[in-house]
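Why do we bother with holo predictions? Because pocket geometry can differ from the apo form. Keep that in mind while you read this record for magnesium ion.
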Amino acid sequence: MDQNSETLEAIFHKALSAPKLFNNHEALRSDYVPDHLPFRSDQITSVAQVLSPLLHSSRPSNLLIYGKTGTGKTAATKHVIFKLAQTSKANGVKASFVYSNVRMAGTEYRVLADLANQTGLSIPFTGLAVSEVLSRVQSQIKTKKLHVVFVLDEIDFLVKSFGDRLLYDLTTSADTITPGFLSMVGISNDLQFKEELGARVLSRLSEEEIVFPPYSAQELTTILQERAKFAFNPAAYTEAAVNLCAALSGLEHGDARRAVDLLRIAGEVAEREGSMQLDERHVQIALQKIDQDRISDALKSLPLHAKLVLIAAVKNNLENKSSGSIYENYSSLCKRSGIESLTTRRVSGLVTELDTLGLVSATLVNYGRYGRTKKVTPQISQDVLRQAFHEDGSVTQLLQD
Ligand code: ADP
Ligand code: MG
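The structure, written out:
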């Protein structure tokens, strides 16, 4: 037996003989829709009330749902849609439900293709003009007299990336298509989203509005205890571990997604260790892992010049660099990479963005009549940067010495 298969055998043996902690791993996936959603009955009732005209074949008003990440918007909406689909089917009522996560779809074309494909059209993966897909959908709805509810989840992403043009066209169609009808449900994680919409799109899309407030720490605890009961075998976790997950997530902004993620990862850590029971220590390890992943994701997705400014700030480990010396370092990094450097003003803007992300801390220091300067202190180490950028050919070299 070679060494590889020996290691594999050991891993498999450990997995086979380890106690089974999860009873239903799926129940902690972030897209899992639980049957029961505590503390959301008001919101669920409101969504159901807006959509229920569908059951007597009237067009429901368009609906805009918003609230911070992890407040149960997606789960509650899917829950209502699912029940509504069941009820319409059982009562012989015609209704089509289309769900598209705009961020996952990624382009306007893919969003419309979701709508087209789920209303019975067959649209190629690429190749048609967006307007052509839209007009095919419109005539499909008319000729088949379809009653369509179209849910656009993470709609703020669509508008930030492509403007509100598609929403303008869709809400206009929703207003005018007949026979058949199209109702839209937009879900936004961004509370400021409405300000980015043109007045006409906004008034059409938000015929009705529902806000999802953040959960309190107490509510998160209840939610998470319920999920844990469902996901784990009874003796496989301590109540304290679950409460810790809720408390750690409640500190931020009542984000149930983070709480559920934390619990799942803690469970995976415990399982990998072969522990008999998930406890608070596993939660602490999971927390570190989540935070590291979050920083690393933020670093990887920075634009090139922001990466260079950050490297300029972090390299040589000096505290309190002046913005002038950062600019010098940055310029020489640009020269080494053979790219043109941005103006001091743009770089100063990038420093502010890095500050917002918590990657550096920038403070203005007053020198009386000598004026003011920005002092920049990195909040991450050179090692963390190296880790995050090690596959990034455009910058790894710059961190070598
Ligand atoms: P949002 O769409 O607002 O970002 P989600 O609906 O995706 O939030 O919820 C995030 C996670 O938290 C999901 O795993 C979801 O199942 C869970 N969740 C949210 N609210 C509740 C609740 N009231 N009860 C149980 N689980 C919930
Ligand atoms: Mg969501």
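The first strand starts at residue 63 and ends at 66.
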